[in-house]
Design brief:
This is Ferredoxin. The protein is an alpha+beta fold. The chain has a single domain (2-79), classed as Alpha-Beta Plaits. Helices cover 31% and strands 20% of the residues. It has helices spanning 15-19, 43-52, 70-79; strands at residues 2-5, 24-27, 31-34, 58-61. A two-stranded antiparallel ribbon has the order 1-4. Strands 2-3 form a two-stranded antiparallel sheet. A hairpin with a 3-residue loop joins strand 2 (24-27) and strand 3 (31-34). The longest helix has 10 residues, at 43-52.
Length: 80
């Protein structure tokens, strides 16, 4: 999954760092640092972080499951 944060939009609310601390972190009070290639295990946390951003500064390619193997997709469907 590939993440992009528009740092011009980011206001440092840190909701993403609270919800996905293994992916997003605040450096000082206003500077966000993040891993642009988040691990699959972080998918749910990243989805929550994207949704929680008050200024919608975070976009995530592959968050919708694109790129999963067919078997993983079936397992996710069966779990619902």
């Amino acid at each position: 999954m590939r993440l992009v944060v528009d740092l011009n939009k980011c206001q440092g609310y840190a909701q993403c760092a609270f919800l996905a601390p293994d992916v997003f972190a605040m450096h000082g009070e206003e500077s966000l640092v993040y891993n642009p290639r988040a691990e699959e295990e972080q998918r749910e946390r990243v989805a929550r972080a994207v949704a929680a951003c008050p200024v919608q500064a975070i976009t995530a390619d592959g968050l919708d499951g694109a790129g999963e193997s067919a078997a993983s997709g079936r397992e996710a469907s069966d779990a619902r």
